[in-house]
Amino acid sequence: MKHYEVEILDAKTREKLCFLDKVEPQATIAEIKNLFTKSHPQWYPARQSLRLDPKGKSLKDEDVLQKLPVGTTATLYFRDLGAQISWVTVFLTEYAGPLFIYLLFYFRVPFIYGHRYDFTSSRHTVVHLACICHSFHYVKRLLETLFVHRFSHGTMPLRNIFKNCTYYWGFAAWMAYYINHPLYTPPTYGAQQVKLALAIFVICQLGNFSIHMALRDLRPAGSKTRKIPYPTKNPFTWLFLLVSCPNYTYEVGSWIGFAIMTQCLPVALFSLVGFTQMTIWAKGKHCSYLKEFRDYPPLRMPIIPFLL
Fold first, then answer.
1. Mean pLDDT of all residues in the chain?
2. Rounded distance, CA 12 to CA 225, Å?
3. 140 neighbors 209 (Cβ within 8 angstroms)
């Protein structure tokens, strides 16, 4: 059996970083990363991006050396992805922050609204309902992170946690300040507006959870298998007939419902920014589905049926 020689060069400087002799043909990129780490411990496998071209795409950990378009002497290019942190840690940090921050404003802890309002309660029912909905949303996210989601990648760059937390925590504080403010005024159309918005919020939360469960069932534990998601017997999953990422559709719907319920501008802006970002993610996933699966349902749109 012939063996491979693998040289790993810096993608920027072309400096030779490592030379691996007698590498098994069946060796995976993950195994090559482990071998590379032995000579460069500062670059643990999660930090490494190995590619065939300096400006090309990263090779997958499961790619096998002999199946790559390389000769018996393979040249791979290395890029440092930076310090990494697990997705679970990122999500728990992102979601625990808004839950805690919102409650600080809801209970009107000192130094927020003035001493005479310390630990007082709003007289408006919608304020208490908004707190319940907001808390439910983030508790749901925390539980899904721990018990539902299966991540295709184990880690993400550490710098992302600061960006993501600024977004989630900042918006949570901004909307909570106004919704729980002593001068807050209820929605224009009163109880009818609140009840309609609450119905939208609850339906979308149930829909979002249903999609997450359906996606979980597509990927066995410990696997990176990708399949086309299809509707199940659960009616909330029937949105798969029309969009590729109904979890994002339901997520946006939840925040639209919350914005209508509270009639609060910061919530509306949070919904708009979230919709913009989720549309970008949905388009990316939709394109990857089309490339990977030739029989992908042609009627589906990324996030909004028939439109977007």
1. 92
2. 32
3. yes
Q: What is the pTM assigned to this prediction?
A: 0.86
User: Could you read off the pLDDT of 112-157 as tens digits, one per residue?
Assistant: 998 999 999 999 999 999 999 999 999 999 999 999 987 766 788 8
Q: Which residue has the tokens 């901004």?
A: 174
Using CB atoms within 10 Å of the CB of residue 53, give its burial: 0 to 12 exposed, 13 to 18 middle, 19+ buried: exposed
Does residue 265 have a pLDDT over 80?
Answer: yes
Task: Return d(Cα 232, Cα 35) in angstroms, integer.
Answer: 44
Tens digit of each residue's pLDDT (9 = 90 or more) over 202-231:
999 999 999 999 999 887 766 667 889 999
Rg over CA atoms, the chain:
24
| CB < 8 Å & 24+ apart, contacts of 52-61 | 52/76, 52/77, 53/77, 54/11, 54/12, 54/14, 55/11, 59/29, 60/29, 61/28, 61/29, 61/30, 61/33
Model pLDDT, residue 210 = 97
For tokens 């030739």, name the residue: 294
